[in-house]
């Protein structure tokens, strides 16, 4: 079989949710093809599969996980220069084997030609050996160039000149961005600038004695950058959490709830997916990135003010929606995430694990687990064709639900979702008086409720759920506000809620 002239690579910019990419050149073996996404090599059988092996027109690469969109996908020939076929004396000489054996070196030569074509070369008729006869130490801190005869050489002087030019340009830029105090206009008395403003006192010049230089103080870019950095840091309450964002409109006397992905999106098609409604209310995502050298918290923040779509959800699954605060993108996986206090991080493919000791998030790929700048913000369940339920994770690692009445009666087991999505939490049960009872006025809130026999309420919890049980008789009780005696609640006169607060990641 002949080998046609072909280009041994294809590149693509991925569309959101894309998984299938065509390679348009001949490949004889699975391992003769290299697949990379944004420069990272993928593993055959784990990250992707191949069709079309041996076809002149090529075939397709099918990725296991859909791409977010915008990634660079490279499919290229990667032939190992070996020969495994061994023809025996007086043995068979089948055409299909012989043709492939003869095709392989020509495909390898095409691969080598592409590598040569993408390299920096001198003209074919260049005479002499252009090898740099210098050791690594001699080449250090030099630039490659050409001597008076046009031959390849290195230069320390040129490198120093480039560094000096870069430093001069940086200094010039800093000087241009600063304001010379001598050029500031000092107003004597009242002065009116037509169409702008009437001033009645002189502007204050930055005072060097206050611990800052006048140039730095007058540099508006410095001030703007400092404020932009300081505002998010000052608002970080709990690390690795959404700090604030869209909230529901609460009923009178009820707390608002996170509304990052409104329940109105239930019923969306899988292709449409869901949208993080950051355009409704600015949302501050904060990812914990360990600690700085001085021990202070290092957080990577993104204050998003535009909607963020997450399309092409997986059918019949729970889609865990993530946000990347550095790349400023969002996507999903279908593997449940987890927290753990240090130790070996799981390498399960597409599994996110947050180390609550090191304060870093990791993502497994089946072989290793690498740190990422991502935060899981919601869980979206799907049927075969549409979104069926949405669970937005609590902001600031604390779930404060609405009060609901009446109080649970005796012999009752209550279960509810754990919106904090951690089992390392503190749980508090609160009762609110709706009708005057046992000395309490309407609106009074009581904590530390007990059973009828004065035993405390016991809670159980997991990462996804929590619950408690009320004993077989008497229901719940507390101390009377008027007599201090231990008495039972009038069940219908009270409402209650269960507050859950994450213990780790509290910002000091």
Overview of this protein structure:
This protein is an alpha+beta fold and 508 residues long. 14% of the residues lie in helices and 32% in strands. It has helices at residues 95-117, 136-139, 156-177, 214-218, 220-234, and strands at residues 9-13, 20-23, 33-37, 40-41, 48-51, 59-63, 72-77, 143-146, 152-155, 191-193, 197-199, 241-244, 274-276, 283-291, 297-304, 308-310, 318-324, 329-333, 338-340, 352-355, 360-364, 369-372, 374-382, 387-392, 398-399, 412-417, 425-433, 445-447, 450-451, 459-461, 465-470, 476-479, 486-488, 494-502. A four-stranded antiparallel β-sheet has the order 1-7-3-4. Strands 18-17-23-24 form a four-stranded antiparallel β-sheet, with no helix packed on it. Strands 19-20-21-22 form a four-stranded mixed β-sheet, with no helix packed on it. A hairpin with a 7-residue loop joins strand 5 (48-51) and strand 6. The protein is elongated, with a radius of gyration of 33 Å. The relative contact order is 0.08. Residues 205-214 and 224-229 have low confidence and may be disordered.
What are its keywords?
elongated, alpha+beta, 508 residues
């Amino acid at each position: 079989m002949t080998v046609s002239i072909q280009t041994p690579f294809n590149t693509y910019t991925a569309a959101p949710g894309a998984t299938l990419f065509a390679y348009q050149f001949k490949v004889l073996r699975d391992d003769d093809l290299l697949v990379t996404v944004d420069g990272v090599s993928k593993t055959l059988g784990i990250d992707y599969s191949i069709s079309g092996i041996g076809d002149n027109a090529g075939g397709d690469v099918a990725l296991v996980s859909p791409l977010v969109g915008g990634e660079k996908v490279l499919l290229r020939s990667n032939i190992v220069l070996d020969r495994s076929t061994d023809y025996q004396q007086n043995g068979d000489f089948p055409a299909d084997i012989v043709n492939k054996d003869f095709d392989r070196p020509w495909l390898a030569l095409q691969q080598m030609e592409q590598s040569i074509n993408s390299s920096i070369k001198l003209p074919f008729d260049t005479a002499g050996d252009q090898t740099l006869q210098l050791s690594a130490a001699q080449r250090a801190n030099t630039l490659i160039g050409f001597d008076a005869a046009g031959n390849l050489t290195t230069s320390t002087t040129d490198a120093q000149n480039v560094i000096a030019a870069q430093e001069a340009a940086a200094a010039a830029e800093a000087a241009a961005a600063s304001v010379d105090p001598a050029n500031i206009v000092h107003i004597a008395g009242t002065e009116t600038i037509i169409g702008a403003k009437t001033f009645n006192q002189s502007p204050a010049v930055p005072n060097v004695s206050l611990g800052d230089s006048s140039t730095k103080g007058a540099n508006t870019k410095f001030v703007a950058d400092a404020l932009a950095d300081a505002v998010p840091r000052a608002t970080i309450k709990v690390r690795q959490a959404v700090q604030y964002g869209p909230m529901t409109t609460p009923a009178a006397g009820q707390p608002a709830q996170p509304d990052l992905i409104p329940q109105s999106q239930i019923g969306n098609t899988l292709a449409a997916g869901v949208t993080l409604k950051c355009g409704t209310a600015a949302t501050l995502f904060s990812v914990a990135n360990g600690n700085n050298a001085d021990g202070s918290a290092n957080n990577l923040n993104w204050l998003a003010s535009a909607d963020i779509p997450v399309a092409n959800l997986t059918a019949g699954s729970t889609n865990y929606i993530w946000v990347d605060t550095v790349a400023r993108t969002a996507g999903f996986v279908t593997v449940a995430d987890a927290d753990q206090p240090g130790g070996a991080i799981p390498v399960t493919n597409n599994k996110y694990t947050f180390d609550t000791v090191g304060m870093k998030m990791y993502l497994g790929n089946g072989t290793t687990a690498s740190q990422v700048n991502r935060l899981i913000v919601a869980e979206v369940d799907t049927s075969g064709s549409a979104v069926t339920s949405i669970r937005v994770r609590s902001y600031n690692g604390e779930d404060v639900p609405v009060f609901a009445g009446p109080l649970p009666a005796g012999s009752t087991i209550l279960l509810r979702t754990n919106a904090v999505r951690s089992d390392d939490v503190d749980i508090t049960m609160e009762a609110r008086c709706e009708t005057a009872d046992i000395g309490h006025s309407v609106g009074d809130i009581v904590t530390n409720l007990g059973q009828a026999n004065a035993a405390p309420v016991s809670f159980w919890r997991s990462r996804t759920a929590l619950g408690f049980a009320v004993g077989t008789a008497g229901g719940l009780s507390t101390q009377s506000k008027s007599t201090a005696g231990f008495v039972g609640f009038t069940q219908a006169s009270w409402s209650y809620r269960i507050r859950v607060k994450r213990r780790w990641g509290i910002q000091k």
